[in-house]
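RECORD TYPE: inverse folding
INPUT: structure tokens
STRUCTURE:
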């Protein structure tokens, strides 16, 4: 029967977007850089080497586990870019500067996606669920994704408010701690709050994010009962 073939809906966005594993994997190269930098007597080459090796190990683990290759390659490229920038400038804190930049870009990109009615949260979740952009034809679900996406804009703003002063001061250890703490704990809070906002924003009787409804006369919600 069709009902038996349907997979149960996830309980939260964390299940859909990778959960704590993705956040922990992101923090591993950061900690590796700081550890190598300290062990080498503030050696940027050693810190960069450890970070790249740690990033490569995480990438290999992700691929072995069947994770999405595009996200894996992007994460490794960020680590390599940070290492190259730090080696180029001779300033250890610049290893983290790449992430400061990506968070600033994320603020602008997420806000713009909301304003043009293509919220990134909907694009990401829709892709994970195999819906492509069908959710955009559901006005209630589109509006819910827009509201929930503002939570992610706020997350990136919080990161920048913490990262920029530390990066400017060149505080490598504090940057490591801040970027680690503001990875999983902040992402977890963002996932929980955005999921709550998303569910609250859906109109009454909506079947949920797995079942986008078409805004047309054929919409089941518009049919009389019985």
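DESIGNED SEQUENCE:
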């Amino acid at each position: 029967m069709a009902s038996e073939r349907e997979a149960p809906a996830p309980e939260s966005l964390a299940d859909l977007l990778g959960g704590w594993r993705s956040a922990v994997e992101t923090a591993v190269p950061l900690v590796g850089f700081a550890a190598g930098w300290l062990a080498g007597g503030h050696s940027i080459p050693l810190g960069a080497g450890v970070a790249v090796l740690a990033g490569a190990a995480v990438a290999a683990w992700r691929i072995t586990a069947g994770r999405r290759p595009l996200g894996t390659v992007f994460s490794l490229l960020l680590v390599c870019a940070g290492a190259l920038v730090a080696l180029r400038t001779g300033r250890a804190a610049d290893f983290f500067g790449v992430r400061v930049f990506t968070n600033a870009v994320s603020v602008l990109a997420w806000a713009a996606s909301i304003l043009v009615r293509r919220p990134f949260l909907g694009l990401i979740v829709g892709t994970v669920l195999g819906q492509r952009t069908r959710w955009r034809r559901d006005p209630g679900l589109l509006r819910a994704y827009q509201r929930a996406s503002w939570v992610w804009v706020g997350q990136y703003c919080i990161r920048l408010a913490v990262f920029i002063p530390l990066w400017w001061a060149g505080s490598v250890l504090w940057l490591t701690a801040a970027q680690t703490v503001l990875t999983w704990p902040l992402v977890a809070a963002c996932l929980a709050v955005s999921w709550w906002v998303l569910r609250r924003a859906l109109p009454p009787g909506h079947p949920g994010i797995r079942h986008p409804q078409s805004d047309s006369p054929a919409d089941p919600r518009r049919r009389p009962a019985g």
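NOTES: The chain has one domain: 13-202.
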